[in-house]
Specification:
- With about 190 residues, the chain is α/β, with parallel strands linked by helices.
- It has a single domain, classed as Rossmann fold (3-Layer(aba) Sandwich), CATH 3.40.50.2300.
- The protein is about 55% helix and about 15% strand.
- It has eight helices and seven strands, in the order E-H-E-H-E-E-E-H-E-E-H-H-H-H-H.
- The strands form two sheets. A five-stranded parallel beta sheet has the order 2-1-3-6-7, with helices on both faces.
- Strand 4 and strand 5 form a beta hairpin.
């Protein structure tokens, strides 16, 4: 079993059990059904959270806000039946998955979240923004995207981050790359 701890926040018992079954062979999985339980469970011991947006006692959005405000060191994927809209641009998640989610997609999402946890802040921000852009581009017509100021700001910020990351990459020597990847392997 992996050392990674995953918190599944899902109020539908059948779906929660399904997700836990998908993940238990590779991860230490805890399942909770309410926003209050999620808030109590989130902390430094949790590496990744799979978070439903609709919970019986509150919103997954509020749980996400709590996670980011407390600076819990975990990555978050929204796993929800709520179709994405422009409101996701202001949310601090790392990935957005629309139900139903297959075993393959859930495992791939967890791998992505745990990999992103190793990135520095700029890379994490770029990865999260790229995910938001991809979700919106898959769901919204280009005309709606082109007329949304917040979406335009996201694209501009992503371009800035890409340029910063390219600049950093160009300044690294071959020895820097070897050392960086060696250090990542030791984490």
């Amino acid at each position: 079993m992996s050392e990674a701890t995953v918190l599944v926040v899902e109020d539908e018992p059948d779906i929660a059990a399904l997700y836990a079954g998908f993940l238990e062979e590779q991860y230490d999985v805890t399942v909770v059904e309410t926003a209050a339980e999620a808030v109590d469970m989130v902390g430094d011991a949790v590496d990744a959270v799979l978070l439903d947006r609709r919970l019986p006692d509150g919103s997954g959005d509020e749980v996400l806000e709590h996670i980011r405000e407390t600076e819990a060191g975990c990555r978050v994927a929204m796993v929800t039946a709520v179709e994405p809209d422009f409101d996701i641009l202001e949310m601090g998640f790392d990935l957005y998955l629309t139900k139903p989610v297959s075993r393959t997609n859930l495992l791939a999402a967890l791998e992505t979240l745990l990999t992103r946890d190793e990135y520095d802040e700029r890379l994490r921000e770029a990865a999260a923004l790229a995910s938001k852009r991809a979700v919106l581009e898959a769901q919204k017509p280009a005309s709606r995207l082109n007329n949304n100021d917040t979406y335009a700001e996201l694209v501009d910020r992503l371009e800035e981050l890409d340029a910063d990351i390219d600049d950093i990459g160009e300044s690294l020597s071959a020895d820097d790359y070897r050392a960086m990847f060696r250090d990542i392997g030791e984490v």
